[in-house]
Amino acid sequence: MSHNQEGAAWSILGYLISGPLFWGGVGFGLDSWLGTGFLLPSGVIVGMGASLYLVWLRFGREA
Amino acid sequence: MELTGSINVIGYGIAAIGPALATGMIFTAYINGVARQPESRNVLQPIAFLGFAMAEALALFGLVLAFVL
Amino acid sequence: MRSVTNLRSAGEGFVPPGAKDFVLPPIFDSIPWLTKPILLVALSVILVSVFFILSSRKAAMVPSKLQFAGEGVYGFIRNGMAKDVIGPEFMRFVPFLFTLFTFVLVNNWFAIVPMLQFPTFSRVGFAYALALITYVVYHSVGVKKQGLFGYIKGIAFMPGVPKPIYLLLTPIEIATFFIVRPFTLGLRLFANMFAGHLLLLVFFLGGEHLLQGVIGLKIVSPFAFIAGIGLTFFEFMVQCLQAYIFTLLSALYIAGSLADEH
């Protein structure tokens, strides 16, 4: 973490992008498979929540 | 002159103002805090980056919604 | 926008610059792959090599100006970036990072060098080729250091989390390390160079077009050129910054692969 300070913002951004991307993608796939419409937004929200949790694990715990 | 495009993009442009200001304010406060008390860096840093993550999450929500809706 | 449209003299409309301005025709019709960006890359390799060979050939205790410049850049990468970011094993990666930095920097500068005026990395293929090299380097460094399974395990499983949460977090980690990171790495360089070049095109082509308009527009047109010149200096800053960021992120990714626990 110490030598990693400059990179923290960049990696946070990476995590925040990939969370909604992955779980939103899963929701999108399920939506078109099951014919529903609510799974994509909920996937995005779940992914964002998981990303924030991950960011907390990575960068917030060592306070 | 004819303009074409999606109005979602304009919406996202407006929505991005908030997180932009928020990110600026978070790092302003962080830099101020560290400048006043350099030893508080280790305490402030995770907080600053978590705040940054929160603000950035909102910006990315806007981006996703601009594409999805 | 509307007022400009009305003021403009009737006749040919202004064609705003767009993505089509980045597709350059081959220089000789018989060789389809030989385009301007390819030549610029070759030129940049020659320039960088010649500069650093000249600056290091007659290395002396009292450096000449050329040697001083060359050593300044080298010291900046070695001490300012590699040593701080990567840590004790940094010396292995200095050649890679140094080459990356100078190559990207010179190619970005081509955007504002008169007569050349085309940033190589505004063609997305070049940016992604570089991102791919970094990708291969940082993954192979990680695999070599920790073994294949150790490396994957270190990426995918955060320590100290209840087991069911892994189902939620592991895909995100995998996606971040294997897809999002190289993607954003290449995209950042490409998008900055593309947008910067487009911005300059808008101001200079637009200023030129205003010059052909009615008298009211002729008066406005110098302001477009002045703004364009100002933006050229701004672009110079962006080019240096993007070269620095690309190299810094490569160093950070390598450092992340070298670290045992993240």
Task: Please sum up the structure shown.
The complex is a heterotrimer of chains A (63), B (69) and C (262). Chain A has helices at residues 5-34, 39-60. With 63 residues, chain A is mainly alpha-helical.
Mind explaining what this structure looks like?
The complex is a heterotrimer of chains A (about 60), B (about 70) and C (about 260). With about 60 residues, chain A is an all-alpha fold. Chain A has one domain. Chain A is about 85% helix and about 0% strand. The longest helix of chain A is centred in the first third of the chain and has 30 residues. Chain B is mostly helical. Chain B has a single domain, classed as F1F0 ATP synthase subunit C (F1FO ATP Synthase, Up-down Bundle). In chain B, helix 1 runs antiparallel to helix 3 and helix 2 packs antiparallel against helix 3. The two termini of chain B are about 25 Å apart. The mean pLDDT of chain B is about 90. Chain C has 8 helices and no strands. Helix content of chain C is about 75%, strand content about 0%. Classes of the chains: A mainly alpha (about 60), B mainly alpha (about 70), C mainly alpha (about 260). Chains in contact: A-B, A-C. At the A-C interface, helix 1 and helix 2 of A face helix 3, helix 7 and helix 8 of C.
What key attributes describe this structure?
heterotrimer; B: 69 residues; mainly alpha; F1FO ATP Synthase; 3 helices; 83% helix; C: 262 residues; globular
Count up the domains of chain B: 1
How far apart the termini of chain A lie comes to 11 Å
Classify the fold: give the CATH topology of chain B: F1FO ATP Synthase
Compute the number of strand runs of chain A.
0
Category by helix and strand content of chain A: mainly alpha
Q: What is the tally of helical segments of chain B?
A: 3
DSSP summary: helix tally of chain A: 2
What is the CA-based Rg of chain A, rounded? 14 Å
What's the topology here?
The complex is a heterotrimer of chains A (63), B (69) and C (262).
Chain A: H1 5-34, H2 39-60
Helix pairs in contact in A: 1-2
Chain B: H1 7-15, H2 17-36, H3 41-68
Chain C: H1 2-7, H2 36-57, H3 65-86, H4 94-109, H5 124-146, H6 148-156, H7 163-211, H8 215-258
